[in-house]
Amino acid sequence: MPGKRDNSSNDLSEFEKQRLANIAERDALLKKLTLEAQSSGLHFPQPPLKAVSGDGSKSRKRTSAKKEDTTPVPRRMSSRLRGLTADSEVKRKADEAFEAVQEAEREKRMRKSDFFTFDSMVISGQKISGKDLVGIDVISKDVAKPYERTFGEKDVKMTKDKDLKELREQMSGLRLWELWDPNRIKITPERIYSMTFHPSEAKPLIFAGDKMGHLGVLDASQERLPTEGDEDPDPSVTTLKPHTRPISTMAIHPSKPTHLYTASYDSSIREMDLEKMTSMEKFAPDSPNVDEPISGIDMAANDPHCLYWTTLDGSFGRYDVRAASRNTTVARWQLSEKKIGGFSLFPSQSHYLATASLDRFMRLWDLRKLSHENPVPVGEHESRLSVSHAAFNSAGQVATSSYDDTLKIYDFGRKGISSWEPGRTVSDTDMKPDTVIRHNCQTGRWVTMTDYAYSNPSLRPQWQQNPQSPIPRFCIGNMNRFVDVYSGNGDQLAQLGGEVTAVPAVAVFHRSKNWVVGGTARGKVCLWI
C-alpha cells in the first residue's frame, strides 16, 4: 500500500542502521556489567529495560531475567569497595611487614662501622693468612720502587725513533695470563668499580672492588694443579665484603705494603691489614645517617699516614689516621658545586692536586694557599663535556679522560711546577692541554662508570708511577675490548687484547712492573704480563 513503511532491514537508512547497532551494543554492555557485579557480590537494582521493536518504536514491556540455580562465588575485593571498615589488626600487621622490608633494605645500604675479622668479611674463597697473601718478603723487607684494532704490529715496525720502538715492542709483547681464560677469572660477584696491584714485584697480586662492596683478591702466582677426570677447577679467588655499597677506589702505600685502604659510596674509608686479615674503619661521617659518597682517595708519596679523598658532592678532605679525634684533624674544602669524579696528588710535591668534575673542568690546586671559605685554583681548563678523571704522574703530567671523546695530557712539569711559589696562578693559555688524543669514552650502560646512581665506571687513565724507563706511560680501557697504552707525549705504545669478550673498563698498571690488569662489568679480570 502506498505510504506504508516497509520494516525490512534493506529499506532502513544508514543512519537508522547505525542507531539500532548502537542500542544493541549498549544493551550488551549493560548486561555484561550486571553479570560481573552479581558475580562479585554486588547487586544494583536494574531499571525497566525498554525493548526496541522492529519499527524502531520503544516498548515498555520488560522481560525478567531467569535466575540461575547456582550461587556465583564472590571475587576478592578491597574493604573500601565492599563498604567495610578495614580490620585494624590486619592493617597493622601489613604495615609492620612493609616497614620491616623497608628497614632491611636501608640496613643493606648503610655502612658498617664495626671492626671486621676475616671470618666476618669472607663471602667465598679459601682461608688465607697475611703471609700467604702478600708473601714473607713483603712483610719483612722494603718493596722495590668490538675487536677492531687501531694499533698493531705494523705500527710498531714503522716506528722510526729507536727508544720509542723498543718500548712499543716491549709493551706490545705483553700477553694474557695463560693459565686460565679471562672468562673464568671471576674475582667479584658484581661489576668491578676499582682495582689495584699490590706494589710487590715478587708476584702479581690483584685487588678489585665491585658495585655491592665486595673485595676480590687474586694471587696470579698460583699454579694450575693437575686434575682427574672431567674436573677443571677455576682459579682460586677470595671474596670479602668490607663495604655495603660500591668500592670507588683503593690504595696501598709503597712504604706500608701490608695495609690496603678502600673508599666507598657508603661514605667510609677502611683499612685492611693484609697480614692479620682484619678491616677497620678509618674515616666516616659522625652520624650513620649522613650520606657523603666518596669518589676517590690518594696518599702522598712521602706520608703513609695521611688520607686525601673527594666526594660526589664536590668536596675534598684530608685526615691523619694517627689522630685520636676526627673532629679536630679533618680538613675540608668545597672545590666544586658538582661531583668530583676523580683526583690525584702530584707524587713529587703532594701539596698540588688535580681534580676532574662533572662541571666540565680540570682544576689544579695548591694546598699551601687554599682558603676554606673561598678556595681558588691555581688554574683550570674547561672541556666540552664532563671530565671523568685527572691523574698525576711523577713527571708533573696530568692525564684526563672526558666525555667529549678525548684524552688530554697537561705537562706542568715542562712548565716548571716544581719551582712555583705558593699562591701562584696559571693563565688560561698555560692551562691548555699539550696533547689531545681522540679516544672513545662513551661507555653507555654496559660498562662501569663511577656514578652515584650505580650506573656504569668511566674509562680512566692510570699512570705507571715508577716506570723502569725514562718514558712515562699510562693505560686506559678501550670500548673495542682492548686496553690502550700511551706515552706521556701521546704516542700509543700498545693495544693489549686477546681472548677478551667484554670491555676491560677499569684498567690499571702495576707500580713498577709492566703488568696491566683490566676489570669488566661481569666481575672478571684480564691480566697481561
Automatic annotation (TrEMBL):
GO cellular component: nucleus
GO molecular function: DNA binding
Family per record: Belongs to the WD repeat DDB2/WDR76 family.
Keywords on record: DNA damage, DNA-binding, Repeat, WD repeat
Leader sequence segment: none
Example GO biological process: regulation of DNA damage checkpoint
Lineage: Eukaryota, Fungi, Dikarya, Ascomycota, Pezizomycotina
Region (Disordered): 39-88
Protein's UniProt name: DNA damage-binding protein CMR1
Purpose of the protein: DNA-binding protein that binds to both single- and double-stranded DNA. Binds preferentially to UV-damaged DNA. May be involved in DNA-metabolic processes.
